[in-house]
Amino acid sequence: MTQSTEKKSLVKSGLLLSLMTFLSRIMGLLREMTKAAFLGTSAYADAFGIAFMIPNLFRRLFAENSISVAFIPTFRGYLEDDRDAGTHAAIQLFISSTLTLVSFLTAIVTVLGILAAPLIVPIFYGRGADADILAETAFLTRIMFPYLFVISAAAFLQGILNGCNSFAPSGFTPVLFNGIVVAVTYFLTPQLPNPEHLPQEALAARAMAFGVLTGGCFQALFQWPFVRKTGWKTTLTGLRNAFTNPGTRKVVALIVPTIIGMAAYQLNDLVSTAIAGKTGTGTVSSLQYSLRLQELILGIFAVSIGTVILPDLSGLAKNQKWREFNEMLVQAIKIIALITIPVTFYSLVSGRELISLVYKTKNFDDRSVALTLSVFRFHIAGLFFIAANRVISPAFYAQGNTKLPTLAGIICFGANIALAFLLSFPMKGNGIALALTLASFVNTACLFLFMRKMPSMDMRGIAKKMLGCVVRTTCFSIIAAAPAFFVRQLLVRAAAGRGRLLAYGIPVLGTAAVFAAVGIALLVLFRDETAAAVSAKLRGKFRRKA
Q1: Which of 4, 75, 151, 346 is most exposed by smallest CB count within 10 Å?
Q2: Contact 147, 213 (CB under 8 A)
Q3: What angle do helix axes 168-188 and 200-230 make, rounded to 10 degrees?
Q4: What is the pLDDT along the chain (546 residues), one digit of tens a residue?
Q5: What are phi and psi of 278, to 5 degrees?
Q6: Phi, psi of 445 (to 5 degrees)
Q7: Beta carbons within 8 Å of 258's beta carbon, 6+ residues apart
Q8: How many of the other CB atoms lie within 10 Å of CB of 538?
């Protein structure tokens, strides 16, 4: 395969993976919409959120992290040395040893999690919590803890496929997972036996928990035929081989320090949820609904831009083209500002209709809308900082520096937890959402301060250009928000009583059209350089396609 063909293949794979990621975010939103319809912001919605978060935390720390950071690089190193039958046999033994080790360790953690569920669950509730809700949360945790085992197997299969440059099957599995959770919830909720005369929300939470476990199993089963096509076998070996294999020992050596850094970031969810659970019914679920909307925006824009610029930044860093390196970073930050700041102001204007359009149905009533809207306004205020962090961190990674972004993440974690403790009791869920926004700002500030330790990065120049773009875009967004606010009021009154889709969809689309029209007019009138550059690139792509 020529270098040009290989590059085109990687670009094609990258585009396909981006499409899969987008579909996954959409399906994730549909999953949350299903949860909203069946559970609303009830105590059972909080119970499901807590129960799912516990095994999901271990998944993020050990399954995904281990595969991406440790297994794939080691596996790729073996593949590059695969010259004879002896080497091929060594690779197969490494695969079998790693699968055995992953299966053994996750099985132990799963069993311990199931046994300890009644002891873990009370950590997430305040004193005087309802005994029935505690018992139900423990029951849901026990249903979903085996998800850790099956999703770790799925992550291992993904590692083999990605190591062999096959990305589409593993990219599709999150879409499959979310679709199965939705389908199982709708199918199983009315079918579950109810000798205890539990409310409908409790049955729906159980159905959704079974959906999570079923979805995890299908994530693994779906990838297995594709792994077989690569020629590698997914067999087990003895525990002695698993613990003594040089490849698995190298994987473990790579995992341990990374987990320490990742733990700080992932523990944010754990501690924030524990604090939220003590502030009242509905806080945990409303925070999760709000974050899902925010993650959809981040998934479409910030993560994509951060992923796309990393290879280019790495190439510029390798060739020591620091002027171009800094220019690309500044341009990426400006694009992020041009997207996220207007989205923030639009969301502040139309948040109620947006949340109602997405979530309001069945058990997600006016109280649920008000609760979610309240925390969403504080969450969305930090959108730019969260997105900027996803773009600035790759600039450090491109230069082989993972310590400084990790340190910034640890500081962010400390700030978030301290602020959440201070703000949660006077402000409840709003305080926890505000804490995340302020901590994200602290993370951005730390990354800029750490640029001083990197002679290749022009901290002053980048900060000056970013600040100018932020101020300019903020002013434009405030101006665009004013007519949008008044149009929203007219559209809400005009569309009232026309059914959910029209009653909320018309204000959402109409307000967006007015906001966008005014915003684009301002960008054109004042000849915004970033908008002009993006527009020129898009026109160039369309011309080439034509």
Answers
A1: 4
A2: yes
A3: 150
A4: 444 554 444 445 555 666 777 788 889 999 999 999 999 999 999 999 999 998 888 887 776 656 666 788 788 778 877 655 567 888 999 999 999 999 999 999 999 999 999 999 999 998 888 999 999 999 999 999 999 999 999 999 988 998 887 878 888 999 999 999 999 999 999 999 998 899 999 999 999 999 999 999 999 999 999 999 999 999 999 999 899 999 899 888 777 766 665 666 667 777 888 899 888 899 999 999 998 888 877 766 655 565 556 556 767 877 888 898 888 889 889 988 998 999 999 999 999 999 999 999 889 999 999 999 999 999 999 999 998 988 888 788 778 787 888 888 889 989 999 999 999 989 999 999 999 999 999 999 999 999 999 888 889 999 999 999 999 999 999 999 999 999 999 999 999 988 899 999 999 999 999 999 999 999 999 988 878 776 776 565 545 555
A5: -90, -5
A6: -60, -40
A7: 65, 69, 70
A8: 10
Burial group, residue 249, by CB count within 10 angstroms (0-12, 13-18, 19+): middle
Spatial distance between the Cα atoms of 383 and 379, rounded to a whole number of angstroms: 7
CA dihedral defined by 503, 506, 508, 509, rounded to 10 degrees?
160
Give the contacts of 67 (CB within 8 A, at least 6 positions apart): 155, 156, 158, 159
- Residue among 192, 133, 154, 147 at smallest CA distance from 55: 147
**Torsion angle in degrees (nearest 10) through CA of 480, 482, 486, 487:** 0
Distance CA 212, CA 500 (A): 28
Q: Which residue has the tokens 């079998």?
A: 96
Residue 537 and residue 16: Cα distance in Å, rounded? 21
Structure tokens, 61: 């720390």
Question: In this structure, what token pair is assigned to residue 173?
Answer: 């599995």
- Cα distances from 102 to residues 95, 140, 160, 162, 243, in angstroms, run 11, 24, 14, 18, 11
Short-list 139, 119, 116, CA closest to 44: 139
* Tokens coding 277: 């659970």
For the chain, how many residues are written?
546
Which pair of structure tokens corresponds to residue 369?
A: 């809308």
Residue with tokens 């898009």: 538
Judging by beta carbons within 10 Å of its beta carbon (0-12, 13-18, 19+), is residue 78 exposed, middle or buried? middle
Rounded distance, CA 74 to CA 101, Å? 15
Give the contacts of 386 (CB within 8 A, at least 6 positions apart): 294, 298, 302, 440
Return d(Cα 346, Cα 86) in angstroms, integer. Answer: 61
User: In whole angstroms, what is the distance from residue 308 CA to residue 286 CA?
Assistant: 32
Q: How many Å apart are CA 153 and CA 141, to the nearest integer? A: 19
- The one-letter code for the residue type at 152 is S
Tokens 């599709």, residue located? 172
Contact criterion met (CB below 8 Å) for 429 and 279: yes
